[in-house]
Amino acid sequence: MKSLLPLVMAVTLLSACQRDPAVAPATEPQTTATATPMAEAPAPTPAADDTAAPAGPVSQASFLGYGDMKLGGTVDEARAAWGGELNGAPMEGTTCHYLWPKWISRPADFAFMMEEGRFVRYDVGTDKETAPGGGKVGMSVEELQKLYGGALKASPHKYTQGGQYLSMDAGDVAPTRLVFEVDAAGKVTSWRVGLSPQVEYVEGCS
Questions:
Q1: Which of 10, 69, 89, 158 has its CA 20 to 30 A from that of 24?
Q2: What is the mean pLDDT of residues 85-100?
């Protein structure tokens, strides 16, 4: 009797060839993450430079006074209105003296005249301040007259040959006067605003 082993093996191999190939399990499609754009970080604020000189304040000069300091007010009222430290004190036996901010190194640049207990005038000798109407130290006579519409009245300077004073009254605004001092070259060297007669004191409190 012939062996059936070869036949059995053939059938087995044929069955294996007819089976469906294994289907690979479906895979989830990969989702590519979309990067969310990051907002640009704001530029850092530069640190304040403590060594830099402070910017000059906007001028508060007017025919009525300076800022909250009103011409004609008492010395105590003027000090309170200023709100900061003021240097200066009257000399014994005098009724007139100047006060000036502690940050001023030269009182001729910016100071307040006090006489008989009243704030009567302020003086400016720097281009960092602007006079009522727009005049400044360093301007020419022509620039001033154009700026003030020719309203400034000229008179000879008491000490400077070829120099002059250019002045105008405040009119209905206040009982005060604005005076510019001009050198021989025709340039403003200082100006002041004050009550009469103090605004006409050429030597200040001297």
A1: 10
A2: 94
